[in-house]
Design goal:
Number of domains: 1
Number of strands: 0
Radius of gyration: 22 Å
Strand content: under 5%
Mean pLDDT: 78
Order of helices and strands: HHHHH
Number of helices: 5
Helix content: over 70%
CATH superfamily: Ferritin, core subunit, four-helix bundle
Length: about 180
């Protein structure tokens, strides 16, 4: 006795326009991850450096979660934006950056890039016929992103206050050493 197995081909529920939007979202997440990573490389305050590296790894996890959800839907992705590091800065630009650093601006740029993702996720959540596994991944990522944004503002202010206080303490010690001599 033999059994015949028929396999239905899974119809692709995602349109070309929506595939492009998903592709752009993944690319945006890679760029944001890279901005956090590069910022961590630039920052000289250890707690802030740790925070930025951690945020980079979180965005990497979100990107991988979305990639896992879309793997069955024939969405081709470019790998050109995966590279990290400041490939566009010369040694002179690196030196100028380190001399004229403003960490609050660096962190603000990272946080602003997070806000660019939210409308893209919202648009994809409203697409009719979007597969449930992709929708679930997008909802998880959006929820976690909103949480990270709200937590980040307080944490960054605290880190910058501590760094400023420790700089003032070091300056005070140096001044008192010079006054004693």
């Amino acid at each position: 006795m033999s059994y015949e197995v028929s396999v239905q081909s899974k119809e692709d529920p995602i349109t070309g326009k929506d595939k492009k939007a998903i592709h752009d979202l993944v690319e945006l997440f890679f760029r944001i991850e890279r901005s956090y990573y590069n910022s961590a490389e630039d920052v000289q305050i250890v707690p802030l450096k740790r925070y930025l590296y951690h945020q980079s790894s979180i965005r990497n996890r979100w990107t991988n979660e979305i990639l896992t959800a879309i793997k069955d839907y024939d969405i081709l992705l470019s790998k050109s934006w995966i590279d990290k590091g400041h490939t566009y800065r010369s040694a002179k630009e690196d030196q100028e950056f380190l001399e004229n650093r403003n960490y609050t601006v660096i962190v603000q740029l990272c946080l602003e890039s997070d806000f660019k993702v939210l409308p893209e996720i919202d648009r994809l959540l409203l697409v009719k016929g979007m597969p449930i596994d992709i929708l679930e991944a997008l909802v998880r990522v959006k929820t976690e992103l909103l949480f990270e944004i709200s937590e980040s503002k307080e944490l960054i202010e605290e880190i910058m206050e501590r760094a400023s206080a420790s700089k003032d303490a070091v300056k005070g010690k140096i001044v008192s050493l010079y006054q004693k001599s």
